[in-house]
Protein backbone atom coordinates (compact mmCIF):
# COMPACT_ATOMS: atom_id res chain seq x y z
CA UNK A 1 0.00 0.00 0.00
CA UNK A 2 1.42 3.37 -1.01
CA UNK A 3 1.52 6.24 1.46
CA UNK A 4 -1.68 8.22 1.11
CA UNK A 5 -2.87 11.64 2.05
CA UNK A 6 -5.96 12.37 4.09
CA UNK A 7 -8.02 15.47 3.34
CA UNK A 8 -8.82 17.45 6.48
CA UNK A 9 -10.88 20.55 5.85
CA UNK A 10 -9.32 22.26 2.84
CA UNK A 11 -5.86 20.75 3.38
CA UNK A 12 -4.18 17.38 2.98
CA UNK A 13 -2.11 15.58 5.61
CA UNK A 14 0.44 13.03 4.47
CA UNK A 15 3.56 12.42 2.43
CA UNK A 16 4.61 15.33 0.25
CA UNK A 17 2.47 17.82 2.19
CA UNK A 18 3.60 20.48 4.68
CA UNK A 19 3.52 19.30 8.28
CA UNK A 20 0.03 19.98 9.66
CA UNK A 21 0.40 21.81 12.98
CA UNK A 22 -2.26 21.63 15.69
CA UNK A 23 -2.43 23.75 18.84
CA UNK A 24 -4.36 21.75 21.42
CA UNK A 25 -6.31 24.07 23.69
CA UNK A 26 -7.94 21.07 25.35
CA UNK A 27 -9.25 22.29 28.69
CA UNK A 28 -6.45 24.81 29.26
CA UNK A 29 -9.14 27.49 28.97
CA UNK A 30 -10.41 26.44 32.44
CA UNK A 31 -13.99 27.06 31.35
CA UNK A 32 -13.33 30.62 30.18
CA UNK A 33 -14.43 31.50 26.65
CA UNK A 34 -12.27 34.64 26.68
CA UNK A 35 -9.17 32.58 27.52
CA UNK A 36 -10.07 30.14 24.75
CA UNK A 37 -10.28 33.02 22.27
CA UNK A 38 -6.89 34.32 23.40
CA UNK A 39 -5.39 30.90 22.71
CA UNK A 40 -7.10 30.78 19.31
CA UNK A 41 -5.57 34.18 18.56
CA UNK A 42 -2.18 32.88 19.67
CA UNK A 43 -2.45 29.81 17.44
CA UNK A 44 -3.39 32.00 14.47
CA UNK A 45 -0.47 34.36 15.16
CA UNK A 46 1.90 31.41 15.41
CA UNK A 47 0.77 30.02 12.04
CA UNK A 48 -0.93 26.83 13.24
CA UNK A 49 -3.32 25.00 10.92
CA UNK A 50 -5.90 24.09 13.57
CA UNK A 51 -6.85 24.27 17.23
CA UNK A 52 -8.27 21.33 19.14
CA UNK A 53 -10.61 21.09 22.13
CA UNK A 54 -11.82 18.24 24.34
CA UNK A 55 -15.49 17.47 24.89
CA UNK A 56 -16.84 15.29 27.68
CA UNK A 57 -20.24 14.59 29.15
CA UNK A 58 -19.18 14.68 32.83
CA UNK A 59 -21.99 12.43 34.07
CA UNK A 60 -20.80 9.73 31.64
CA UNK A 61 -17.03 10.17 31.79
CA UNK A 62 -16.56 10.56 35.54
CA UNK A 63 -17.04 7.27 37.46
CA UNK A 64 -19.76 7.74 40.05
CA UNK A 65 -17.46 6.71 42.88
CA UNK A 66 -15.35 9.79 42.07
CA UNK A 67 -18.19 12.33 41.82
CA UNK A 68 -18.00 13.47 45.44
CA UNK A 69 -14.21 13.65 45.77
CA UNK A 70 -13.33 17.22 46.66
CA UNK A 71 -10.42 19.19 45.23
CA UNK A 72 -9.08 22.72 45.29
CA UNK A 73 -9.95 24.63 42.13
CA UNK A 74 -10.10 28.24 40.92
CA UNK A 75 -13.75 28.13 42.06
CA UNK A 76 -12.83 27.03 45.57
CA UNK A 77 -13.01 23.53 47.04
CA UNK A 78 -15.65 21.66 45.05
CA UNK A 79 -16.49 18.08 44.10
CA UNK A 80 -14.80 16.48 41.12
CA UNK A 81 -18.05 16.20 39.15
CA UNK A 82 -18.72 19.92 39.68
CA UNK A 83 -15.18 20.71 38.55
CA UNK A 84 -15.69 18.68 35.36
CA UNK A 85 -18.92 20.59 34.71
CA UNK A 86 -17.15 23.93 35.22
CA UNK A 87 -14.52 23.27 32.53
CA UNK A 88 -16.95 22.00 29.88
CA UNK A 89 -18.20 24.34 27.20
CA UNK A 90 -21.84 24.00 26.14
CA UNK A 91 -23.66 24.72 22.89
CA UNK A 92 -23.50 28.51 23.08
CA UNK A 93 -19.76 28.50 23.80
CA UNK A 94 -18.99 26.12 20.94
CA UNK A 95 -21.24 28.12 18.63
CA UNK A 96 -19.12 31.17 19.42
CA UNK A 97 -15.87 29.20 19.06
CA UNK A 98 -17.02 27.92 15.67
CA UNK A 99 -17.81 31.43 14.47
CA UNK A 100 -14.63 32.88 15.96
CA UNK A 101 -12.40 30.28 14.27
CA UNK A 102 -14.10 30.91 10.92
CA UNK A 103 -13.57 34.64 11.40
CA UNK A 104 -9.89 34.09 12.20
CA UNK A 105 -9.37 31.60 9.36
CA UNK A 106 -8.30 28.61 11.43
CA UNK A 107 -9.85 25.14 11.60
CA UNK A 108 -10.97 23.52 14.85
CA UNK A 109 -11.97 20.08 16.00
CA UNK A 110 -12.20 18.14 19.25
CA UNK A 111 -11.65 14.80 20.93
CA UNK A 112 -14.99 13.46 22.15
CA UNK A 113 -14.70 11.26 25.24
CA UNK A 114 -18.14 9.66 25.03
CA UNK A 115 -20.92 8.97 22.55
CA UNK A 116 -23.05 11.93 23.65
CA UNK A 117 -20.08 14.21 22.99
CA UNK A 118 -19.95 12.91 19.39
CA UNK A 119 -23.64 13.75 18.89
CA UNK A 120 -22.98 17.19 20.39
CA UNK A 121 -19.97 17.96 18.18
CA UNK A 122 -21.69 16.77 15.01
CA UNK A 123 -23.88 19.87 15.23
CA UNK A 124 -20.82 21.95 14.29
CA UNK A 125 -19.49 19.75 11.47
CA UNK A 126 -15.86 19.69 12.69
CA UNK A 127 -13.13 18.88 10.15
CA UNK A 128 -12.19 15.64 11.95
CA UNK A 129 -12.24 13.88 15.30
CA UNK A 130 -9.47 12.75 17.56
CA UNK A 131 -9.58 9.60 19.65
CA UNK A 132 -7.62 10.39 22.80
CA UNK A 133 -5.16 7.77 24.01
CA UNK A 134 -7.39 7.00 26.99
CA UNK A 135 -10.25 6.15 24.61
CA UNK A 136 -8.36 3.89 22.20
CA UNK A 137 -9.99 0.73 23.55
CA UNK A 138 -13.52 2.22 23.76
CA UNK A 139 -15.17 0.26 20.94
CA UNK A 140 -18.53 2.04 21.21
CA UNK A 141 -16.88 5.45 20.98
CA UNK A 142 -14.79 4.35 18.00
CA UNK A 143 -17.94 3.07 16.31
CA UNK A 144 -19.78 6.38 16.79
CA UNK A 145 -16.82 8.49 15.63
CA UNK A 146 -16.27 6.26 12.60
CA UNK A 147 -19.93 6.53 11.65
CA UNK A 148 -19.50 10.29 11.16
CA UNK A 149 -17.45 9.60 8.03
CA UNK A 150 -14.91 12.20 9.05
CA UNK A 151 -11.14 11.69 9.27
CA UNK A 152 -10.04 10.24 12.60
CA UNK A 153 -6.78 10.98 14.40
CA UNK A 154 -5.91 8.08 16.69
CA UNK A 155 -3.55 8.88 19.56
CA UNK A 156 -1.66 5.85 20.86
CA UNK A 157 -0.34 6.71 24.31
CA UNK A 158 -0.68 4.08 27.05
CA UNK A 159 -1.49 1.48 24.37
CA UNK A 160 0.09 -1.78 23.21
CA UNK A 161 0.56 -2.66 19.54
CA UNK A 162 -2.17 -5.26 19.90
CA UNK A 163 -4.62 -2.65 21.20
CA UNK A 164 -3.62 -0.27 18.41
CA UNK A 165 -4.13 -2.98 15.77
CA UNK A 166 -7.59 -3.72 17.20
CA UNK A 167 -8.56 -0.05 17.04
CA UNK A 168 -7.27 0.29 13.47
CA UNK A 169 -9.21 -2.80 12.39
CA UNK A 170 -12.36 -1.17 13.72
CA UNK A 171 -11.68 2.27 12.24
CA UNK A 172 -10.19 1.20 8.92
CA UNK A 173 -7.34 3.09 7.27
CA UNK A 174 -9.14 5.12 4.59
CA UNK A 175 -9.42 8.30 6.69
CA UNK A 176 -7.06 7.47 9.52
CA UNK A 177 -4.23 9.52 11.04
CA UNK A 178 -1.98 7.82 13.61
CA UNK A 179 -0.15 9.72 16.35
CA UNK A 180 2.75 8.54 18.47
CA UNK A 181 2.25 9.77 22.04
CA UNK A 182 3.25 9.00 25.60
CA UNK A 183 0.53 9.81 28.12
CA UNK A 184 2.59 11.46 30.84
CA UNK A 185 2.23 15.20 31.56
CA UNK A 186 4.93 16.37 31.21
CA UNK A 187 6.75 13.44 29.66
CA UNK A 188 10.42 12.69 30.29
CA UNK A 189 12.76 12.63 27.31
CA UNK A 190 13.57 8.97 27.91
CA UNK A 191 9.92 7.99 27.35
CA UNK A 192 9.09 10.02 24.22
CA UNK A 193 10.27 7.13 21.99
CA UNK A 194 10.18 9.20 18.81
CA UNK A 195 11.47 6.31 16.71
CA UNK A 196 8.00 4.79 17.01
CA UNK A 197 7.09 7.28 14.27
CA UNK A 198 9.29 5.26 11.91
CA UNK A 199 7.90 1.99 13.30
CA UNK A 200 4.35 3.13 12.50
CA UNK A 201 5.35 4.24 9.01
CA UNK A 202 6.74 0.80 8.28
CA UNK A 203 3.88 -1.11 9.94
CA UNK A 204 1.03 1.01 8.55
CA UNK A 205 2.37 2.28 5.19
CA UNK A 206 -0.95 3.69 4.00
CA UNK A 207 -1.53 5.84 7.08
CA UNK A 208 -0.16 9.35 7.71
CA UNK A 209 1.78 9.31 10.98
CA UNK A 210 2.33 12.21 13.35
CA UNK A 211 3.32 13.13 16.86
CA UNK A 212 1.33 14.36 19.84
CA UNK A 213 3.88 15.68 22.32
CA UNK A 214 3.56 16.32 26.04
CA UNK A 215 7.18 17.16 26.84
CA UNK A 216 8.70 20.44 27.96
CA UNK A 217 10.78 22.20 25.33
CA UNK A 218 10.62 22.26 21.54
CA UNK A 219 13.72 20.47 20.24
CA UNK A 220 12.24 16.99 20.49
CA UNK A 221 9.17 18.02 18.52
CA UNK A 222 11.49 19.22 15.75
CA UNK A 223 13.18 15.83 15.91
CA UNK A 224 9.77 14.23 15.31
CA UNK A 225 9.47 16.29 12.12
CA UNK A 226 12.95 15.18 11.02
CA UNK A 227 11.88 11.57 11.61
CA UNK A 228 8.99 12.02 9.21
CA UNK A 229 5.98 13.16 11.26
CA UNK A 230 3.21 14.31 8.90
CA UNK A 231 1.44 16.28 11.63
CA UNK A 232 2.34 17.75 15.00
CA UNK A 233 0.09 18.40 17.98
CA UNK A 234 1.24 20.33 21.03
CA UNK A 235 -0.84 21.78 23.85
CA UNK A 236 -0.99 25.58 23.90
CA UNK A 237 -1.37 27.82 26.93
CA UNK A 238 -1.20 31.48 27.88
CA UNK A 239 0.97 30.68 30.90
CA UNK A 240 2.48 27.33 31.90
CA UNK A 241 2.01 28.35 35.54
CA UNK A 242 -1.77 28.59 35.14
CA UNK A 243 -3.98 26.21 37.11
CA UNK A 244 -4.72 22.95 35.30
CA UNK A 245 -3.30 19.47 34.80
CA UNK A 246 -2.08 20.06 31.22
CA UNK A 247 -0.51 23.49 31.61
CA UNK A 248 3.01 22.35 32.53
CA UNK A 249 3.21 20.17 29.41
CA UNK A 250 2.00 22.99 27.16
CA UNK A 251 3.71 25.58 24.97
CA UNK A 252 3.17 29.29 25.52
CA UNK A 253 2.25 31.56 22.60
CA UNK A 254 5.78 32.80 21.91
CA UNK A 255 7.06 29.24 22.05
CA UNK A 256 4.38 28.07 19.62
CA UNK A 257 5.35 30.81 17.20
CA UNK A 258 8.98 29.70 17.40
CA UNK A 259 8.00 26.05 17.01
CA UNK A 260 6.00 26.67 13.83
CA UNK A 261 8.82 28.73 12.33
CA UNK A 262 11.40 26.08 13.20
CA UNK A 263 9.22 23.29 11.77
CA UNK A 264 8.99 25.17 8.48
CA UNK A 265 12.77 25.65 8.51
CA UNK A 266 13.33 21.94 9.16
CA UNK A 267 11.01 21.08 6.26
CA UNK A 268 13.06 23.26 3.92
CA UNK A 269 16.32 21.79 5.20
CA UNK A 270 15.20 18.15 4.76
CA UNK A 271 15.05 18.57 0.98
CA UNK A 272 14.01 15.81 -1.39
CA UNK A 273 16.64 13.18 -0.58
CA UNK A 274 18.19 13.34 -4.07
CA UNK A 275 21.93 14.03 -3.92
CA UNK A 276 22.96 16.82 -6.30
CA UNK A 277 25.52 19.56 -6.78
CA UNK A 278 23.85 22.92 -6.22
CA UNK A 279 24.53 25.94 -8.38
CA UNK A 280 25.73 27.78 -5.27
CA UNK A 281 28.48 25.16 -4.81
CA UNK A 282 30.18 25.67 -8.16
CA UNK A 283 32.22 28.69 -7.10
CA UNK A 284 33.79 26.71 -4.25
CA UNK A 285 34.06 23.58 -6.40
CA UNK A 286 36.17 25.45 -8.93
CA UNK A 287 38.11 27.26 -6.24
CA UNK A 288 38.83 24.45 -3.78
CA UNK A 289 38.75 21.10 -5.59
CA UNK A 290 42.22 20.31 -6.86
CA UNK A 291 41.33 17.15 -8.79
CA UNK A 292 38.15 17.26 -10.85
CA UNK A 293 36.20 14.51 -12.60
CA UNK A 294 38.70 11.83 -11.70
CA UNK A 295 37.25 8.33 -11.76
CA UNK A 296 38.13 6.35 -8.67
CA UNK A 297 39.07 2.71 -9.30
Q: What is this structure, in a nutshell?
A:
With 297 residues, the chain is α/β, with parallel strands linked by helices. Helices cover 36% and strands 20% of the residues. Helix 1 runs parallel beside helix 10 and helix 9 (219-226) packs parallel to helix 10.
Describe, in plain words, how this protein is organized in 3D.
The chain has 297 residues and is of the alpha/beta class. It has a single domain (6-288), classed as TIM Barrel, CATH 3.20.20.70. It is 36% helix and 20% strand. It contains 11 helices and 13 strands. Strands 3, 4, 7, 8, 9, 10, 11, 12 and 13 form a 9-stranded parallel beta sheet that branches. The protein has a two-stranded antiparallel sheet with strand order 1-2. Strand 5 and strand 6 (76-79) form a beta hairpin. Helix 1 (33-46) runs parallel beside helix 4 (91-104), helix 1 packs parallel to helix 10 and helix 9 (219-226) runs parallel beside helix 10 (253-270). The radius of gyration is 21 Å and the shape is globular. The two termini are 40 Å apart. The mean pLDDT is 94.
Amino acid sequence: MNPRRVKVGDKFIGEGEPVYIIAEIGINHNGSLSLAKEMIDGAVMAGCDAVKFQKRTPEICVPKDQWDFERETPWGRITYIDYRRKVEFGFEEYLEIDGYCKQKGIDWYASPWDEEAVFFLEKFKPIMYKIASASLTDKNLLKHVNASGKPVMLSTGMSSLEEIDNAIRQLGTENLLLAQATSTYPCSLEELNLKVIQTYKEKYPGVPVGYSGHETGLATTLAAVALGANFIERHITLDRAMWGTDQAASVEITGMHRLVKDIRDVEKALGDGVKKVYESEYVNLNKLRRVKNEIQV
